[in-house]
Amino acid sequence: MRPTLNPEESLFYDVVLINLLGPNASRKIQPGDVVLAVRKSRRLIKRIEKIVLVEGLQQYWLESDSKDGQAYYDSSFFGPVPKQSVKGVATWIIFPPHRIRKL
């Protein structure tokens, strides 16, 4: 998710606050949100990506804004993500101190 998270000029990894989405979550996911998505394949993969498109009510299209080699390990690689795979929305960068801000 560079440059949104972990910019190259930073010496530390960003730590983000995740607002977990429960079954009764009142917050709606919108394009531009940075979310935590969990994919279960041969192993559990946790990704933080940006919502680009909400497809109906059941799927999301996630894209990375990275410019490195992992830039395409997002929905352009594995397709739309089911709604139940999105576990939360990143709301704040809380560390390092000079990067504290609302996402």
Q: Give the tally of β-strands.
A: 7
> Briefly, what CATH class?
Mainly Beta
Number of alpha- plus pi-helical segments = 1
Overall tally of structural domains: 1
Strand content: 35-45%
Structural class: mainly beta
CATH architecture: Ribbon
CATH superfamily, by name, is Umud Fragment, subunit A
As residue ranges, the low-confidence spans are none
What is the N-to-C order of secondary-structure elements (H for helix, E for strand)?
EEEEHEEE
Q: Provide the helix percentage.
A: under 10%
Note the gap between the termini: 12 Å
Q: Which radius of gyration do the C-alpha atoms yield?
A: 14 Å
CATH fold descriptor? Umud Fragment, subunit A
Largest sheet: 7 strands, antiparallel
Shape: globular
Indicate the mean pLDDT: 81
Describe, in plain words, how this protein is organized in 3D:
With 103 residues, this protein is mainly beta. The protein has one domain: Ribbon (Umud Fragment, subunit A). The chain is built from one helix and seven strands, in the order E-E-E-E-H-E-E-E. Strands 1, 2, 3, 4, 5, 6 and 7 form a seven-stranded antiparallel sheet that branches. A hairpin with a 3-residue loop joins strand 3 (44-55) and strand 4 (59-63). The two termini are 12 Å apart. The mean pLDDT is 81.
